[in-house]
Design the sequence.
């Protein structure tokens, strides 16, 4: 073999070692703080309450999202009595999101990562639809703001679920 071939092989080995070290370092970050994979890490950290285990963190994050969805649903029910607008759409979407999150918790218990991602994606779409419906609607800022926060939380849950084992 020529010197150039040896140098090429050594260079490739070096690149592979460097990439694996970087992956190991990134993986250890996930072990220390699963929220590093999320788009909204501060919100995630406040939601998972110090959980280091990815599966437990995902479970806690979904449970908290369900709690906040229930609260947003109660607000939407009160607003619906005053005026409709997009509130009925949001109420329907909050109900749908809650059902999808309930399924997601069952998916965690069953170890069904594929269905977990589907149900979390569906909930994310529900919150986004509500936000889009309420955008620019005067007097319903609480529902619009709630849907925005719920969207971010669902996005975080979906990111956490990618680490689920």
Sequence:
């Amino acid at each position: 073999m020529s010197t150039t071939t040896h140098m090429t092989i050594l260079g490739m080995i070096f690149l592979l070692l460097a990439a694996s070290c970087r992956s190991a370092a990134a993986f250890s970050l996930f072990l220390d703080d699963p929220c590093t994979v999320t788009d909204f890490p501060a919100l995630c950290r406040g939601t998972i309450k110090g959980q280091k285990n990815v599966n437990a963190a995902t479970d806690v994050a979904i449970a908290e999202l369900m709690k906040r969805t229930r609260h947003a649903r109660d607000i939407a029910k009160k607003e619906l009595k005053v005026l409709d607008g997009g509130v009925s759409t949001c109420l329907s979407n909050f109900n749908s999101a809650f059902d999808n999150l309930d399924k997601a918790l069952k998916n965690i218990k069953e170890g069904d990562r594929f269905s977990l991602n589907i149900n979390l994606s569906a909930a994310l779409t529900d919150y986004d639809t509500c936000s889009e419906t309420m955008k620019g609607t005067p007097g319903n800022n609480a529902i619009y703001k709630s849907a925005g926060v719920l969207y971010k939380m669902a996005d975080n849950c979906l990111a956490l679920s990618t680490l689920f084992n």
Q: What stands out?
A: Helices lie at 3-32, 41-48, 54-82, 87-110, 113-134, 141-161.
